[in-house]
Structure formats: structure tokens, C-alpha cells
Amino acid sequence: IKKIAVMTSGGDSPGMNAAIRSVARTCAYYNIECAGIYRGYEGMIEGDFKELTARNVKGLINKGGTVLKSARSKEFRTKEGRQKAYDALVAANVDALVVVGGDGTFTGALIFNQEFGFPVMGIPGTIDNDIFGTSHTLGYDTALNTVVEVIDKIRDTASSHNRLFFVEVMGRDAGHIALNVGVGAGAEEILIPEEDLGLERLLESLRRSKLSGKSSSIVVVAEGDKIGKNVFELKDYVEENMTEYEVRVSVLGHMQRGGSPSCFDRVLASRMGVKAVESLLEGKSNYMVGLLSDTIQLTPLEQAVKGKSKINEELIRVSDIMTT
Ligand code: F6P
């Protein structure tokens, strides 16, 4: 292997830039070339590449988003699109690929590898933490810190006005963000897709906390929660059934995906980048690098795509105890 290309794809997440930097610097360390691919698979199809050197990735470690940009490519879903991408990589003398992204990105990489035998390595980058084979995806820790900081601020208003706030957080179909920030910010209730609390129990729990002397409450709601009502409908439902609270809704949205990565994400990105390049140089392919028991380990890409990240049951129990 003489040249490795790196790209970011799917939803951006803090730490992606640090991963690009790490891949480029590791390539430089081993005296091989590195190319950055712009706009994920879309740029791959168009041959939109840029040479990455140890020096031109400076200043990236603390930057949110991705300087290589990200896109969801429709054309790469077609055989013709993938053929174009392969031709562009070959024309640029690229021998192997590091893809930073989530499920969709890895599925694309797997198909590409099956069709052309092109060596691929995945780095999990998403704030959702919904990837099997790693305890942490890149950007997850930063998102947790961002959201906790915001909920602390919302709590100021909640307690000044004796209000109940429903705070909706991201996570797609997973409740990792909601559960962790709920515990971290001391929420009174946490609604996650992995556990259906039910509307009645939610009301009961809110009544109980009111009776126990609480004048304000924060309920963290995962966007993928399955309680059957969205946050605005939840607000109406609670207002109809409880007169004790003035209710407000705050949907945090994309601010959760931005910002400078935490130290944890910067270090994780650096470790993952090194492992991804070194594994390719050892002749390995079709794996995802992940953090397991504080070591960087490889999981077959197929398993990473098919497996389900598990919610932390112990943390659910802790949150139940903390909300009494
Ligand atoms: O996967 C990251 C994520 O931010 C999810 O939490 C969210 O459901 C989704 O992406 C939003 O996607 P988009 O940026 O396309 O609206």
C-alpha cells in the first residue's frame, strides 16, 4: 500500500477532523501518501481529492464539523456510481480507503469491497453512539457535554418559573444521548426508545415529584422515543392532565452536532486513525476500529453494521434510583 484515501460521510460529528488529521499524520509517519476525498462517496465518484500531508492538516484537532465535508450520495447506491468511484480511486493511485461515518457509510464501504476487492477500514463517527463494536463513537462524548451544558441552562429558567420542560435530544433510534445526559443533568424523567415508560407512568412520576416538593422538572426525551407522542403532543397531554405545571418544550436540534471536540473525542480520533492506517498496512481490510475495554480493537465491518449497540442497563437502573 502506497496511498490511502480518507473521507467523511453521513452526519458530521465533532472529532471527524481530528480523525482526518490522524490518518494523514500516520500515513506521513509510514512514508506513504494520503488523499482526502471531499463530500464522501459523492466526491469519490467525481474524483474530488486533495493531497493531505502532515503539515496541511494542522489546526484540525480542535475543529468541529469536517473540512472534507460530508454528503449522502444517491449515485453510490448504483453499480454505475460505484464503478465510477472505483475508476477515480484507481486513476488517483489510491490503494486503500478509510471511511469515517456511521451505518450507511459502512454499508456502502462493504458493498464496494465486495464488488471490487478494494481494502476498506471504518472509523465510527456519529454523535448517536449507535454502532456495534465500540463503546464510543466519535463525537458522542462532545455531544453529551454540549447537551448537559444546555440542559443546565434550561434548568435555570425551569426553576425560576416553576416550569416543566420537555427537552428533545438527538440519537436517531437510540437513547444513548438521552440516557446519559438525563443522568448527567439530573433530569426527573428520561424517555428512550429502548424502554417504553408509557404515558400513565409518566404522569404518575411527574405527580410524585411534584408531591415530593419539586417545583420544576426536566424531562429528557430521545427523538426516537416510542411513547407514541412527539414532544409537542406530550406537552399538550401533560397540560390536559396536570394543572400543576406550566409546560415548555425545547428541541435542541443540530447544535448537538457542532462545536469543538472534547479532549476524549480528540484522543479517540487520534487513536482510531493510527489503528485504521496500521491495520491496512498489515493487510487487513473490512474492519471497523472501535474502543472496547479502553483498547482500540477491530470488529468486522459486517458485524458493525448488523450488530446492535446495547443501551446501558445499569445506567437505566441508576437513573431510576436518581429520579426517586
Ligand atoms: O446521525 C446523526 C443525527 O444527527 C441524528 O441524531 C439525527 O436523527 C439525524 O442525524 C439528523 O439528520 P439530518 O442532519 O439529515 O437532519
TrEMBL record:
ATP binds at G11, R72, S73, G102, D103, G104, T105. GO terms for biological process: canonical glycolysis; fructose 1,6-bisphosphate metabolic process; fructose 6-phosphate metabolic process. Residues 3-279 form the Phosphofructokinase domain. Pathway: Carbohydrate degradation; glycolysis; D-glyceraldehyde 3-phosphate and glycerone phosphate from D-glucose: step 3/4. Pfam families: PFK (PF00365). Keywords: Allosteric enzyme, ATP-binding, Cytoplasm, Glycolysis, Kinase, Magnesium, Metal-binding, Nucleotide-binding, Transferase. One of its GO terms (cellular component) is 6-phosphofructokinase complex. Belongs to the phosphofructokinase type A (PFKA) family. ATP-dependent PFK group I subfamily. Prokaryotic clade 'B1' sub-subfamily. Catalyzes the phosphorylation of D-fructose 6-phosphate to fructose 1,6-bisphosphate by ATP, the first committing step of glycolysis. This is ATP-dependent 6-phosphofructokinase. It comes from Olleya namhaensis. The gene is pfkA.
